[in-house]
């Protein structure tokens, strides 16, 4: 690869030491681009190579990474995305998130494939990147401000052409599920990436760039991108998507008995119509999107207090039905507060759900009950400030449940709260949560729709194979390229559009199968990073919440349903087998070698992998 010209990459990463206020350029080997592509791939490789094993996720040695990919910022369907990553303070494993932001476009235009921040600034600061230059500006006047107010101040200071990532008070207070926020309502990094920035005294990252990447075949790229955009808009699903976006899922989930209610006790909710996509359509006042988006998903309403709030399904299910709230405007207040303070709505809803149930059981003194949005809103404020009981809620449901002494109804995997799909009767989706590379998250594989169509009672190997296929393109191709998955998963356009765009941008004749191999490499290295950070590893780390095995549904058409533990273990072992992982969930040494993982990763596999699954 030495001396070989790379198209579509800058072949350089900006490394910033916040302690010293110094920047350096790292010209990474070209083989890294071939093997890991960008985004999540670069993030996990950098963490593997440069993060000290056992590092404190809230210490200066942790690395905060913002990484783009070869498609980021190019004209095309929904390409204004970047990946943020670090060791998670919530799970102590690999954590990342995907954010639509002008910061993604600007980072690419500044001539960098990634930004890595280490150390800790001596005072509250803004990290400013302008093409080749990077510096720290003082941010004492911004520290303590909510994310929306701080964003407006940053725009005034640096201009509307700047890309901005920032944290709210929750990140400053090191809430373990604090997020990175962009554009007054976009956020990502739910495993606590906002707290990582807060621990580094970084209130915001501001990026401006003036360059354009050199593509292998600009004409072929332009043609492929136009074809993809036209395919999206010609889809039969497009008009309905533009009306409701992800909010249509509320009614779908109710009908399918997977809508979380009362801390995932049930899969149906009596007040679902009041938080539905159909109701949202009637009260919507605006529509927002990420940069370069052709299918905007940010539906905006006025909440109970008259403020504008951008909604999606996960937020409203976790802060609505999961907390017993049946009015969209009330759930939207909680949604807005989470955005203002910079907290993940899913983990916030999951932690509050656990707390309300623990309070109901007399195990936690809590001034709130199901459905009382005003009292719950006060809990949200206490959580962001880490005051009173909020200091416990800021730790997330896993740590809170251990403190309370009842862990079986804490709805998380590996410390990350389950997103908004009840799995009492969905073993495949439970497997998706169990094996997600960041903890219980749906982004890598929304298997539940396929599962309901093809047999939700099945624990077959076919279901494990379908999950891996979804992880390969949702968590692989889209997280490395980097682009939004919605054009494929919501409007149904072919993945081959992205294969063509990638080939034209980079000149690498990768087939879809080649991208799947890259995804397998990233999943295996990510799993070994988890193993390295946690030490011993067992199949228990990949088990879904105990509630789904223990408590059957009591309402709806699937009343009595619950997961079968023995059959689920068989499904999980089938997943391991298909991935080439051992029976304890660690990649086998031969798998690590076949995928070309670093030598020290192969050695760890040799030490930690049990017998084949």
Kindly describe this structure.
This protein has 613 residues and is an alpha+beta fold. It has 3 domains: 13-208, Aldehyde Ferredoxin Oxidoreductase,  A, domain 1 (4-Layer Sandwich), CATH 3.60.9.10; 242-420, Aldehyde Ferredoxin Oxidoreductase Protein, subunit A, domain 2; 422-492 and 511-613, Aldehyde Ferredoxin Oxidoreductase Protein, subunit A, domain 3 (Orthogonal Bundle). Helix content is 42%, strand content 13%. The protein contains 26 helices and 17 strands. The strands form 5 sheets. The protein has a 6-stranded mixed sheet. Strands 8-7-12-9 form a 4-stranded mixed sheet, with helices on both faces. The protein has a 3-stranded antiparallel sheet with strand order 13-14-15. A hairpin with a 2-residue loop joins β16 and β17. It starts with 12 loop residues before the first strand and ends in a 5-residue tail after the last helix. The model has no long low-confidence stretch (mean pLDDT 96).
The overall average pLDDT, rounded, is 96
| Model regions low in confidence, pLDDT < 50 over at least 5 residues | none
Structural Rg: 22 Å
Helical run tally? 26
Strand order in the sheet with the most strands: 2-1-6-3-4-5
Largest β-sheet summary: 6 strands, mixed
Q: What's the number of structural domains?
A: 3
CA distance, first residue to last residue: 36 Å
Helix content estimate: 40-55%
Report the CATH topology name of the largest domain. Aldehyde Ferredoxin Oxidoreductase,  A, domain 1
Name the CATH architecture of the largest domain.
4-Layer Sandwich
% residues in beta strands: 5-15%
**For this structure, what is the CATH homologous superfamily of the largest domain?**
Aldehyde ferredoxin oxidoreductase, N-terminal domain
What gross morphology would you assign?
Answer: globular
Number of strands: 17
Q: Indicate the CATH class of the largest domain.
A: Alpha Beta
Helix and strand composition category: alpha+beta
């Amino acid at each position: 690869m030495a001396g070989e010209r790379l198209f579509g990459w800058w072949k350089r990463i900006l490394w910033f030491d916040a302690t010293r206020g110094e920047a350096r350029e790292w010209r990474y080997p070209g083989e890294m681009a071939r093997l890991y592509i960008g985004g999540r791939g670069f993030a996990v490789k950098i963490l593997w190579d440069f993060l000290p094993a056992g590092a404190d996720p809230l210490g200066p040695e942790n690395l905060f990474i913002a990484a783009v990919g070869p498609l980021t910022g190019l004209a095309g369907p929904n390409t204004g995305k970047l990946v943020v990553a670090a060791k998670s303070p919530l799970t102590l494993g690999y954590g990342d998130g995907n954010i639509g932001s002008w910061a993604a476009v600007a980072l690419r235009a500044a001539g960098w494939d990634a930004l890595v921040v280490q150390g800790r600034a001596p005072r509250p600061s803004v990290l400013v990147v302008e093409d080749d230059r990077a510096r720290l500006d003082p941010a004492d006047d911004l520290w303590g401000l909510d994310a929306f107010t701080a964003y407006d101040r940053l725009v005034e200071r640096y201009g509307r052409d700047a890309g901005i990532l920032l944290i709210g008070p929750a990140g400053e207070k090191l809430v373990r599920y604090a997020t990175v926020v962009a554009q007054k309502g976009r956020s990502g990094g739910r495993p606590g990436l906002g707290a990582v920035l807060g621990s580094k005294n970084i209130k915001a990252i501001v990026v401006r760039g003036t360059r354009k990447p050199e593509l292998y075949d600009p004409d072929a790229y332009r043609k492929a991108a136009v074809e993809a955009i036209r395919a999206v808009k010609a889809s039969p699903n497009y008009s309905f998507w533009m009306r409701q976006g992800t909010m249509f899922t509320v009614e779908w989930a109710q009908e399918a008995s997977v809508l979380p209610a009362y801390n995932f006790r049930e899969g149906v909710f009596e007040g679902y119509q009041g938080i539905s996509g159909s109701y949202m359509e009637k009260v919507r006042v605006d529509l927002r999107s990420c940069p370069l988006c052709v299918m905007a998903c940010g539906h905006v309403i006025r909440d109970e207090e008259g403020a504008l709030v951008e909604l999606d399904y996960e937020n409203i299910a976790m802060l609505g039905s999961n907390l017993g709230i049946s009015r969209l405007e009330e759930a939207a207040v909680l949604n807005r507060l989470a955005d203002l303070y910079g907290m993940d709505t899913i983990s916030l809803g999951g932690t509050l759900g656990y707390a309300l149930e623990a309070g109901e059981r007399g195990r936690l003194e809590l001034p709130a009950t199901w459905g009382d949005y005003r009292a719950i809103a006060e809990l949200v404020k206490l959580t962001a400030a880490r005051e009173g009981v909020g200091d416990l809620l800021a730790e997330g449901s896993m740590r809170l449940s251990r403190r309370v002494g009842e862990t079986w109804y804490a709805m998380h995997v590996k410390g990350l709260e389950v997103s908004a799909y009840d799995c009492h009767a969905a073993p495949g989706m439970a497997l998706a949560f169990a094996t997600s590379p960041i903890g219980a998250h749906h982004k890598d594989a929304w298997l539940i729709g396929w599962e309901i169509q093809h047999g939700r009672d099945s624990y077959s190997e076919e279901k494990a194979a379908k999950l891996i296929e979804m992880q390969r393109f949702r968590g692989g191709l889209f997280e490395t390229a980097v682009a939004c998955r919605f054009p494929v998963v919501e409007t149904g356009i072919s993945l081959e559009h992205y294969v063509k765009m990638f080939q034209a941008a980079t000149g690498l004749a990768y087939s879809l199968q080649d991208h799947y191999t890259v995804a397998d490499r990233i999943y295996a290295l990510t799993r070994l990073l988890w193993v390295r950070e946690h030490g011993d590893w067992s199949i228990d780390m990949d088990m879904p919440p105990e509630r789904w095995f223990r408590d059957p549904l009591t309402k709806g058409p699937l009343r009595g349903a619950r997961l079968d533990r023995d059959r689920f273990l068989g499904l999980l072992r089938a997943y391991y087998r298909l991935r080439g992982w051992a029976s304890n969930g660690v990649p086998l040494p031969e798998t690590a070698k076949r995928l070309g993982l670093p030598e020290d990763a192969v050695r760890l596999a040799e030490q930690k992998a049990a017998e084949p699954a």
